[in-house]
Amino acid sequence: MRPNERPTTKDVDVFVVAPPRLLLLDVAGPIEVLRKANLEQSALRFDVVYVGPAPSVGSSIGLEISGVAPLPDRLPDGALVVVPGSVETPLAVAGEGRDEDAVHESTIIDWLTRAVRPGIRLVSICSGALLAARAGLLDGHDCTTHHACVAELARLAPAARVRENRLYVEDGERFTSVGVTAGVDLMLHIVAQMAGHATALAVARHLVVYLRRGGDDPQLSPWLEGRNHIHPVIHGAQDAIAADPSREWSVDALARESATSPRNLSRLFNAHAGMSVTDYVNRMRVALARELLAGSRLYMETIAERAGFASARQLRRAWGRHHELPPSRMREAERAIEGAR
């Protein structure tokens, strides 16, 4: 990059489908994540548009949403389609306009069937998975939905693998969540993938929520590993470590930061994160070292120092517990991949 040249911004088109009786929190929470992500960094911009079969739609709390654009004939490559859930009984008068609602739902299902193709990521929140299932878009995929809709999802998508007791599930280009506040968890996960863990952490702090992941996701990011729990003390400690992995994080130091005893902190880490404090700190340091390794030409000793290790030898020892290739060979392999692109 030339001096004074600004980095280019990559735009991500986000189409939020507005179904009848829209569950407002399914939209407000996840899209607020994207709004804040746009403010936290400039490399990636989420361009959000609301689309649907009608220019306005009633919501779960009786508030009418207007300014809804028509469903587009074709989606741009790389687009994100968000399908929120709806409620049976809105706060407003129930039972009115249900025939029209059914027509609008059928229009959305037909559009999803036509518009969602390979290269388009589909994100369903709560009962939005039922619309995706009726469009045949969850067949052959792992998926989930709100616990009240699990049986219906299994009926509508017998070729799908419906997972219960999961906050959200990622399978290829399909992202599904149990909905309501878990839609925020899912969107934080997507932001972490696309804009980086630091952005996701900053957004989570702003929203006063914690980063959580589905328990058995094989694509678990090291920055989010051990966070599929709801204990506030451990989340606070993990946030502190992730914000500065190179700091001297002894159990005593972290206990003081967390306003608890070293013994209790160790017990809580093992119970809720599934690992010791030392293991967690080393995982964060190895994750930081890998980013430095891939994104710089720094010497190994410098990388080790910046990641919080006493020496390159100590880094290699910790690295070997999580990676098959040693750091130098991984750097060579990643450079070869970049050169082939």
Descriptive account of the structure:
- This protein is of the alpha/beta class.
- It has 2 domains: 185 residues, Class I glutamine amidotransferase (GATase) domain (Rossmann fold, 3-Layer(aba) Sandwich); 113 residues, Orthogonal Bundle (Arc Repressor Mutant, subunit A), CATH 1.10.10.60.
- The protein is 45% helix and 13% strand.
- It contains 13 helices and 11 strands.
- The strands form 3 sheets. A 7-stranded mixed sheet has the order 5-2-1-6-7-11-10, sandwiched between helices. It has a two-stranded antiparallel ribbon with strand order 3-4. The protein has a two-stranded parallel sheet with strand order 8-9.
- α5 runs antiparallel to α6 and α8 crosses α9.
Short note summarizing the structure:
This protein has 2 domains: 185 residues, Class I glutamine amidotransferase (GATase) domain (Rossmann fold, 3-Layer(aba) Sandwich), CATH 3.40.50; 113 residues, Arc Repressor Mutant, subunit A (Orthogonal Bundle).
Write the layout of secondary structure elements.
Layout: E1 10-17, H1 24-40, E2 44-52, E3 56-58, E4 64-66, E5 69-70, E6 80-83, H2 98-115, E7 121-125, H3 128-134, E8 142-143, H4 150-156, E9 161-162, E10 168-171, E11 174-177, H5 182-195, H6 197-207, H7 232-243, H8 251-258, H9 262-273, H10 277-295, H11 300-307, H12 312-319, H13 327-340
Parallel strand pairs: 1-2, 1-6, 2-5, 6-7, 7-11, 8-9
Antiparallel strand pairs: 3-4, 10-11
Helix pairs in contact: 1-5, 1-6, 5-6, 7-8, 8-9, 10-11
